[in-house]
């Protein structure tokens, strides 16, 4: 029977996430051991700009700090309390150059990396 779960901030499993354009701290909390459909967790970036094309639908909730999400349509200045929708296939920069940002992310499908024959960064 499915059960609700609570993940305490102080107990989140933060690890380095190395990307071609920098390193962030990521706590992949909702994983395939919990859900077959969607993933989620927290990420902290500081003085980094990550160029990426999303291979999933993603929602960001900005918790602390700020970042710019830059796409071909322009710049989104993201601050605490803001929610960002990123559809699958959008090419963007998560720009935290000269700043720090802590945010929650949710994505679908959870197995995006496997579907694209790659490993998560």
Question: How does the SSE layout of this entry go?
Answer:
Elements: E1 15-19, E2 22-30, E3 39-46, E4 49-53, E5 57-65, E6 67-71, E7 74-78, E8 83-86, E9 91-95, E10 100-108, H1 112-115
Antiparallel strand pairs: 1-2, 2-3, 3-10, 4-9, 5-8, 5-10, 6-7, 6-9
What this model shows, in words?
There is one protein chain. By secondary structure, the chain is mainly beta. It has one domain (21-113): Jelly Rolls, CATH 2.60.120. The chain has one helix at residues 112-115; strands at residues 15-19, 22-30, 39-46, 49-53, 57-65, 67-71, 74-78, 83-86, 91-95, 100-108. The strands form 2 sheets. The chain has a 6-stranded antiparallel beta sheet, with no helix packed on it. A 4-stranded antiparallel beta sheet has the order 4-9-6-7, with no helix packed on it. A hairpin with a 2-residue loop joins strand 6 (67-71) and strand 7.
């Amino acid at each position: 029977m499915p059960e609700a779960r609570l993940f305490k901030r102080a107990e989140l499993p933060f690890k380095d996430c190395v990307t071609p354009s920098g390193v962030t701290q990521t706590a992949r909390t909702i994983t395939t051991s919990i859900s077959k459909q969607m993933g989620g967790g927290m990420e902290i970036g500081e003085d980094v700009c990550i160029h990426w094309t999303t291979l999933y639908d993603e929602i960001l909730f900005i918790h602390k700090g700020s970042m710019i999400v830059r796409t071909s349509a322009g710049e989104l200045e993201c601050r605490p309390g803001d929610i960002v929708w990123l559809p699958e296939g959008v090419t963007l920069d998560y720009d935290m150059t000269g700043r720090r940002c802590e945010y929650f992310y949710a994505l679908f499908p959870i197995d995006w990396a496997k579907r694209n024959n790659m490993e998560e960064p």
